[in-house]
Design a protein that fits this description.
Number of strands: 0
Number of helices: 10
Order of helices and strands: HHHHHHHHHH
Radius of gyration: 16 Å
Structural class: mainly alpha
Largest sheet: none
Shape: elongated
Strand content: under 5%
Helix content: over 70%
């Protein structure tokens, strides 16, 4: 991985969001790094609680042709961010695409269930969660999001 990209990620992880974004914006000018730089900018805005900006960059990163794990992470980040912004119908579409394209990605299901809950589809949301728990005992994928899920368990409307 490019040294400056590693440095930008380290800055973001340390909470130095603007410094990270400055470095990432420069990297976005390099075609081979553009999509990944845009994704990391999205994450920095998301980490900072600036969901509107994050959504723009998730979409831009996806438009640049992300593949593999990065594509999944951008799709999940965008769908979760849209849900947080109250754009539940768009978020639902995003989650349904993720579940269709990545059927083994059980970590998307709790966030999809939250979206369904926000849309008033409580029975479907509960069904998904019960199926998830019965079919997939906690996985590393779900455990990666444990902190966010615990927050939303206490803040179902958020």
């Amino acid at each position: 991985m490019e040294v400056n990209l590693q440095r930008a990620i380290a800055l973001r992880t340390a909470g130095q969001y603007e410094e990270s974004r400055e470095l990432l914006r420069a990297l976005a000018a390099i075609q081979t790094l553009k999509a990944e730089a845009l994704l990391n900018i999205a994450w920095s805005y998301d980490n900072e609680g600036l969901e509107e900006r994050a959504a723009e960059y998730y979409q831009a990163a996806l438009n640049e042709g992300l593949a593999g794990d990065n594509r999944f992470e951008a799709q999940l980040g965008l769908a979760c961010t849209l849900r947080c912004l109250g754009k539940y119908k768009l978020a639902k579409q995003g989650f349904e695409e993720i579940i269709r394209d990545y059927p083994d990605a059980s970590e998307a299901i709790p966030f999809y269930a939250l979206c369904l809950h926000n849309l008033g589809e409580h029975d479907r949301a509960m069904t998904l969660m019960l199926e998830l728990m019965s079919n997939h005992p906690p996985t590393p994928g779900i455990q990666r999001y444990a902190r966010a899920l615990k927050f939303y368990a206490q803040n179902l409307r958020g």
